[in-house]
């Protein structure tokens, strides 16, 4: 099952919603239904983007990422981008004559100014980026250009931007986290696992990142521990599961990381509970599924999140999404806004949305 590290949304205006939906005013999640159509389900509605754009449906389990007004996915190895502002679907691989993506490639995306950079693994195992600037669309084979170690087939990908520097992380066949980064006008790579003397990632581990005051990259080791790589005058690591005395992650657990009021890393345990590793003067763990009386995730569920800082109040709004038995999306939501009730809800029922198809990814919004 393909999973995509999920993503951050920043907003400056509040939505007008029904009293029930007001409990989770910013909920939005993207997924495939049983016909492999891509849907945009929110707290107020459900849109079949495949029908709206007139595009052909991709194969089941295609990776999906969303940022700003764009939703990216793969269809027969080609990178497609949906523009939500006009409901158009464009084949960027054909536009740029790029090498096709591998059948098990993941995707990751960030913005550079107002332009998207979308990364994937090509059929030769290289990490490529299709990017846009004022001159149009372009493609670059980054791992080949710097002679970086090969990524393992089907590697998870995570990316972030800091100032004028770009970063994309991937896993090698030895379970090492390698980073391709753009600094001082050129591309480089580094083996972060070796630099930090960190344990290797287990086969099938997810990979996610969070840019706070420094770069944090998270993965799972062979014991189901969540490992954090971070930079502070050199690369270091922390076993967050051990530091927080937290339960181990289930094999193949998705990972999501973000910072709202505090730094958080979310994973699923063997009972389908969403566990939240939180840093606040030390690492601790909270069973979100239990605290918010949510339904547990089904086995093999993907996961996504959105976290919103409105600037009004100012308040944070965080939604964690995963799939429950029957294919519905469960939404655990929390806010420090006194007018919003934190809790959990079946978002599929709330939005009268199509259920999630078998093997579908989940993606949350980033702006």
Q: What's the rounded overall pLDDT mean?
A: 90
Largest sheet: 4 strands, antiparallel
CATH class: Mainly Beta
Q: Total helix count? A: 7
Notes on the protein architecture:
This protein is mainly beta. It has one domain: 6 Propeller (Neuraminidase), CATH 2.120.10. It is 9% helix and 42% strand. The protein has seven helices and 27 strands. The protein has helices spanning 49-53, 92-96, 142-145, 192-196, 240-243, 288-291, 347-351; strands at 28-32, 38-42, 46-48, 64-67, 70-75, 78-83, 88-91, 107-112, 115-121, 127-133, 136-141, 158-162, 165-171, 177-183, 186-191, 207-211, 215-220, 226-231, 235-239, 256-259, 263-268, 274-279, 283-287, 303-309, 316-323, 329-335, 343-346. The strands form seven sheets. A four-stranded antiparallel beta sheet has the order 4-5-6-7. The protein has a four-stranded antiparallel beta sheet with strand order 8-9-10-11. The protein has a four-stranded antiparallel beta sheet with strand order 12-13-14-15. It starts with 27 loop residues before the first strand and ends in a 16-residue tail after the last helix. Mean pLDDT is 90; it is low at 1-22.
